[in-house]
Task: inverse folding
């Protein structure tokens, strides 16, 4: 059955861009008599706030949307992400990275064959790793692109389907050895999204063009974890009058401030092309 989702992070109030994205996904679900899933992506414990989460429900209801309940909150499902990570680890597809952000940047800048665009590393020698673990040093888990390429027989045959564009070659190497589990929360964006899209039976991932590159990485994770492959649709980003995309920093454009200024849901839906 057709199923799509809107997956905001409760790190700020929703703005017009979110409304456009949610309405786009919701309209697709309605047209296909399918499911519309709302997912709260709250693994970033330093930036997520309960108040932003309640505001998401309030703003989407104001917009006239309905969604399946119970809503999946990623912070309540860490065991699912840890299981996926353990699977990758068992196949030697991830490695522990003890570098700080700064050390990663330094390693990229001083790579032997010229600066690296994205980080590529590898596991430490086992004695050093054992010593660092024994010393209680924090580490992140990174995907090993080398190991992943070997596991899927090279990335040439890896593709995804973008609605309206057809089959697109996936280029996960553009993301480098991405972090799959952060040192603090034990999971990171790409892994949580990939696992959830599969667990929630999402057949169509509809989201903004800003996440197009993320799809290349997520497609690889699906292949490595033997998960089903959804179809993708990356919609254009809504631009403000200044030609820039809406962002959480544009406080005046949040749905609640539009509401306070007297805008009705019907006005906004019409303005966004869903009248
Ligand atoms: N939580 C992500 C965000 O708010 C969206 C993830 C996704 O749609 O895959 O940007």
Result:
């Amino acid at each position: 059955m057709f199923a799509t989702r809107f997956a905001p992070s409760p790190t700020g109030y929703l703005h017009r861009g979110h409304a456009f994205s949610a309405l786009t996904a919701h309209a697709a679900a309605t047209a296909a008599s399918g499911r519309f899933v709302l997912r709260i992506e709250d693994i970033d414990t330093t930036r997520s706030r309960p108040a932003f989460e309640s505001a998401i429900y309030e703003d989407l209801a104001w917009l006239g949307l309905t969604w399946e309940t119970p809503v999946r909150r990623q912070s309540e499902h860490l065991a699912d992400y840890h299981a996926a990570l353990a699977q990758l680890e068992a196949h030697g597809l991830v490695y522990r990275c003890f570098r700080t952000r700064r050390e990663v940047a330094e390693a990229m800048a001083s790579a032997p064959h010229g600066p690296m665009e994205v980080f590529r590393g590898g596991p430490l020698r086992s004695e050093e790793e054992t010593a660092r673990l024994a010393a209680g040093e924090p580490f992140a888990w990174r995907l090993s692109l080398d190991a992943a390429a070997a596991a899927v027989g090279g990335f040439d045959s890896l593709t995804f389907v973008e609605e309206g564009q057809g089959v697109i070659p996936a280029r996960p190497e553009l993301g480098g050895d991405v972090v799959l589990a952060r040192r603090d929360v034990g999971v990171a964006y790409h892994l949580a999204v990939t696992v959830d899209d599969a667990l929630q039976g999402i057949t169509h991932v509809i989201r903004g063009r800003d996440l197009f590159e993320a799809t290349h990485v997520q497609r690889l994770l699906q292949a490595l974890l033997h998960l089903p492959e959804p179809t993708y649709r990356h919609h254009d980003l809504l631009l403000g009058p200044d030609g820039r995309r809406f962002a959480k920093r544009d406080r005046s454009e949040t749905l609640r401030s539009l509401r306070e200024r007297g805008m009705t849901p019907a006005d906004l839906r019409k303005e966004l092309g869903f009248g």
Remarks:
- The two ends are 26 Å apart (CA to CA).
